[in-house]
Write a structure and sequence with these properties.
The structure is a single chain. 41% of the residues lie in helices and 17% in strands. It is α/β, with parallel strands linked by helices. It has one domain: TIM Barrel. The chain has an 8-stranded parallel β-sheet. α7 links the parallel β7 and β8. α2 packs parallel to α3, α4 runs parallel beside α5 and α8 crosses α9. Bound molecules: zinc ion. The site of zinc ion has 5 residues, from loops.
């Protein structure tokens, strides 16, 4: 039983063989998938998938790449979507200073506005942070997400991870933890408490070893679980069941005080 907490299975790369992707993930013991939006249409697709498939849950939000153009009207539509059944998080939202596809001031503004909307509607947030550690930290301190949050595909240092864990955030690991050059990520996975870790694929991107470079899909989240089990010297089943339980807490399928 594994929860792939971050995937984009609405991506057109799955159009031809979606049913086979579903069969493979079920055969691999993946019992839940959170499909994550990055703009209004992908958020609508996430909600639709969650309605069509028992095992799919939805996150809805505007990725920093798409911050420019996120009008008040679009945010109002997202707020309505957020109230649909099986919407478990607001995301992915945050800052991306690596590709800088939207002006930084607008990225920040849309990030803040979406934290406020998530607070209003009672959802945790899913954070995308690339090369923007300092500004992300400032924003989440000034505008704390009331229902907690996840740093998706965590790639920062252990120093930063400690700060985030102290603020109550979860850290989610994806394919890069399996890569040969992943020294920092492995260090974070080694030190982070197992009850604060999630696993994900970020499908169709970031394919874990041994399939790196090919199209990713939720079935391969097993490789991430396997790697974390290796790093922590624990049975795979323990990592699978604890990360599943963690996801149930942050996505509010079971109630528990987050702090
Ligand atoms: Zn993503």
């Amino acid at each position: 039983m594994i929860w792939d907490t971050h995937a984009h299975v609405d991506d057109p790369v799955y159009r031809e063989d979606f049913q086979e992707v579903v069969t493979r993930l079920q055969a691999s013991g993946i019992s839940r998938v959170t499909n994550v939006g990055y703009d209004l249409p992908s958020s609508e697709r996430s909600v639709q998938l969650a309605q069509d498939y028992d095992f799919i849950y939805a996150a809805i939000g505007i990725h920093p790449h798409n911050a420019e153009g996120a009008t008040a009207e679009i945010l109002a539509k997202l707020l309505l979507l957020a109230k649909q059944p099986k919407v478990v998080a607001w995301g992915e939202i945050g800052l991306d200073y690596y590709r800088d596809l939207s002006p930084r001031a607008i990225q920040k503004e849309i990030f803040i506005q979406q934290i406020k909307l998530a607070n209003e509607v009672g959802l945790p947030i899913v954070i995308h942070n690339r090369d923007a550690h300092q500004d992300v930290l400032e924003i989440i301190k000034a505008h704390p997400p009331k229902y907690g949050g996840v740093f998706h595909c965590y790639s920062g240092s252990w120093e930063m991870a400690k700060v985030l864990l102290n603020l109550g955030f979860y850290l989610s690991f994806a394919g890069p933890v399996t890569y040969k050059n992943a020294r920092h990520t492995v260090e974070v996975a080694a030190h982070a408490p197992l009850d604060r870790i999630l696993v994900e694929t970020d499908s169709p991107y970031l394919t874990p070893e041994p399939r790196r470079g090919k199209r990713n899909e939720p079935a391969y989240v097993r490789e991430v679980v396997k790697k974390i089990a290796e790093i922590k010297n624990l049975p795979m089943e323990d990592v699978a069941s604890q990360t599943m339980h963690n996801a149930e807490i942050i996505f509010r399928l079971v109630k528990k005080d987050l702090r």
